[in-house]
Design a protein that fits this description.
The strands form two sheets. The chain has a nine-stranded mixed β-sheet, sandwiched between helices. The chain has a two-stranded antiparallel sheet with strand order 9-10. It is globular. Helices cover about 30% and strands about 25% of the residues. It has about 270 residues and is α/β, with parallel strands linked by helices. It is built from seven helices and eleven strands.
Length: about 270
Amino acid sequence: MASKPAPKRADLRRKRILLTNDDGINAPGMKVLQRIARNLSDDVWVVAPEAEHSGASHSLTLTAPLRLRKISARKFAVEGTPTDCVMMALNHVMADKRPDLLLSGVNRGANMGEDVTYSGTIAAAMEGTLVGVPSIALSQSFANRKVMHWPTAEQHAGDIIRRLVAVGWSREVLMNVNFPDVLPGEVKGVEVVRQGRRDISALNIEQRIDARERAYYWIGFRPVQGTPKAGTDLSATEDGCIAITPLHMDLTENKALKKLKASFEG
């Protein structure tokens, strides 16, 4: 039996790479992403939010000015959302020469299932995709907030990125990569899977009382027992694999479109 050919890996040493996130310019995951990117290229730029914007989705700032803080020659912080950051990077900071690749993350926590509609990490990659920059979102899963396996993303992301770029993808697609909550040496492989779906009953709204005896609320998620559907991002990471999911910018549901056309235009 013929052996499987070795996977192709792109040489990114001369490529311009833009980094951003939704956890903020000083987040641990951004430090990890900078080390990952600088092992791939010497032309690495960072334009990230001044503060955390988790759950910001694809929002942008329209009712307040954006402040830009220059940290170093290729590193900037924006008082705005992840989408603001990508807009500022492409249209102002890097206007002379746009990046060849956008990397968003490494997020503190997975972005799988319905997370992709809330995530600022995904949204930054969406914005890059909209303007024609190949974009990859990267997230590190965790079960215990006190134990983050950042070395897992750091050790495996570079190879994943080079392999993805070598394969390539269409202009309407972004790549969503989730690393499992295991040590680097315990990763069981890579699975290319579809977006999964959690039990929405996992949503939890917790009421508390402040010092003035007024109620306030935290939105969160309770762990839900059960086996995720096979072939999804949720099942892949639970099995200890890196999950790669191509996400399409066109949200049109074609079966419903056809049915509605027949009803309204028939």
